[in-house]
Design a protein that fits this description.
about 280 residues; Lipocalin; 2 domains; seven-stranded mixed sheet; about 25% helix
């Protein structure tokens, strides 16, 4: 064999091995177990899916979640599935239902899939797989993105809400009737010291808002006129931040926009603007 043919054969073999490796998942996510239609409806209703949403379903199986989101709620979406036969089935069903222009199904490893486009992400995966995705969800999804997990929670994340109900038809699928839908909202990143301009009734000098964060849990304090005061009732839902200053009644609410916060202080019927920016 000539050298050029040897080289060509070598690179072809490397390409084949690379392609094979690309479709081998980082972890076996378990057997395909379809979500009952009632569970699918509950997941989508619970996440308030609508026409402005782009939904990504990880481990999409026959595509029923994404297809229902398009047909019933008007959303667009993508399903990610490792089994080629299920991907083909889902795309064929989408064509039959006239929604192929709104949804697509791809054969990919869910751990390697770009999920940044999602405004809603759904999954019905085994507990260890769900928790292996925690860092990916926190870093790739935009603040405010809703995550809906069927049955299994994200350890370490505080759910925005949870709904539990019985579905008799589920017993034939999983052996139990109990169904749990966990709803999470991806939080903005607020960790750090923020230079704040608070209403003059609190302080005429710039204040420092010190926020500490563990995923969805936020705590902190504010430095007013050289005195550090803890924050109370701190809540963060997506980009919406709320807190009170200990010993004071006004409620502070704000919208986190990257490295700035714009909000209002509510004291009775009065509302006063406040802002903050994150230091370098």
């Amino acid at each position: 064999m000539k050298p050029t043919r040897v080289a060509a054969a070598f690179f072809a073999a490397v390409a084949i091995r690379a392609l094979a490796a690309d479709v081998v998942p980082l972890k076996n996510a378990g057997p395909y177990v379809p979500s009952p239609d009632a569970a699918v409806a509950a997941m989508l209703q619970y996440a308030h899916v609508g026409p402005n949403d782009f939904l990504i379903d990880l481990g999409s199986g026959d595509g029923r979640i994404v297809r229902t989101a398009a047909k019933v709620f008007g959303a667009r979406g993508m399903g990610v599935e490792i089994k080629e036969s299920l991907v083909r089935q889902a795309n064929e069903e989408a064509k039959k239902e006239g929604i192929a222009d709104k949804v697509r199904f791809v054969k990919q490893d869910l751990f390697k899939t770009d999920i940044s486009q999602a405004t809603v992400l759904t999954m019905y995966l085994l507990p260890d797989t769900v928790n292996m995705l925690r860092e990916k969800l926190a870093t790739e999804l935009k603040p405010g993105t809703r995550i809906v997990s069927h049955d299994y929670p994200l350890t370490g994340w505080l759910p925005d809400d949870m709904k539990q109900f019985d579905l008799p038809e589920k017993e034939a699928i999983s052996g139990v009737q109990t169904t749990i839908v966990w709803l999470y909202v991806v939080p903005a990143k607020v960790e750090g010291d923020w230079s704040a301009r608070l209403p003059a009734s609190l302080s005429r000098a710039p204040a420092t808002l010190r926020l500490r964060q563990q995923l969805t849990r936020v705590s902190g304090s504010v430095v007013l006129d050289g005195k550090e005061i803890p924050l109370e009732d701190v809540r963060l839902r997506g980009e919406e931040l709320a807190f009170r200053i200990a010993g004071r009644k006004p409620l502070f609410t704000g919208q986190v926009k990257g490295r700035s916060i714009e909000g209002t202080m509510e004291s009775g019927a009065n509302k006063t603007a406040w802002t903050a920016s994150l230091g370098s």
